Amino acid sequence: MRRTTSLDVARRAGVSQSAVSRTFTPGASVSAETRAKVLEAADALGYRPNKIARSLITQRSGIVGIVVAYLDNLYYPNVLEKLSRELQENGFHALMFFTHQSSDKMDIVLGELLEYQVDGLIIVSAGLSSDLAARCAASGIPIILFNRTLDDETLSSVSSDNVDGGEKVARFLLRCGHERIAYLAGWPGSSTDRDRRLGFTRVLSENGRGLYRDDVGHYNREEACAATRRLFAAPPFPDALFCANDHMAVAALDVLRHELALSVPQDVAVVGYDDAPMAAWPSYALTTVTQPPDAMVPEAVRILLENIEASASRPRQVKFIGELVQRKTTRPCL
Q1: Rounded alpha-carbon distances, angstroms, from residue 292 to 38, 247, 252, 280, 322
Q2: SS3 of 326, please?
Q3: Position 55 in a domain
Q4: Strands (E), 99-165
Q5: CA separation (Å) from 14 to 18, 19, 24?
Q6: Is residue 83 part of a domain?
Q7: Structural contact between residues 193 and 185, judged by C-beta atoms closer than 8 angstroms
Q8: Model confidence, pTM
Q9: Are residues 108 and 191 in the same domain?
Q10: How confident is the model at residue 223 (pLDDT cuts 50, 70, 90)?
């Protein structure tokens, strides 16, 4: 059976083939009357525009690549859904790429990105290196970093102000009277962990305190559980624990409550970061710092599309201020 073409639609609607093309091109100029005729004819003939053929003419694929390293942290599936919907509302579609910290895996991802000729790229995971970002930018692919930053002013980024968030947690725990404050770090190579730790320890230092204990969980549940066991291996135990994200905080809570039989928050207070959906679940009711995806996602997409439309657009680094949300893993504190 022969495929219906735009020429068939044009003949049935009594308009030019270019009018059909404009009708199915977002933002193109076409009168309401012509649009109605074209859509009626297309519906009658079962016509759908060929995006692949159009991409050969426009040199645009209509695809934005999203690079992630893992989805264990429930903050990321939530973000990815919002990114995909926001891109669709702006006429683009998301294509997911998974990678790893190792350079050989990144080489494979970069090759795939170039093969699919994506119009832009969003790097979401905190575990990606600056090397991939720099090489994609050098290939002419507009790029934006989400929930991470790099020390490179030529790259756009949207993130929360992680230094400020770390400072908020430290001030809160000190105000609540905690003295043996521990830190469970994420992946040491990420900007998120670096900045949260910087803000946290700086406020402690300004108040004559240091970290009572610290360990690394690499943003991984199993490693966070093992790190929590080490942090609480010998008394006197920490009386407060700041985890670099909610995913690790939930792991720490399970170890503290079910393995070590400690009461949260009576024996130890626990604070996370992200305000992932599970943080509000009644079983955890985790005190945490918000990273607002409803504000961050539209801003990231807007900046990326500006760079796609005008490659000379000035890179922008946008930071959102998060709020500390008090729930039941900390004692009530003003």
Answers
A1: 41, 16, 23, 14, 7
A2: coil
A3: no
A4: 120-123, 143-146, 156-160
A5: 12, 10, 16
A6: yes
A7: yes
A8: 0.79
A9: no
A10: very high
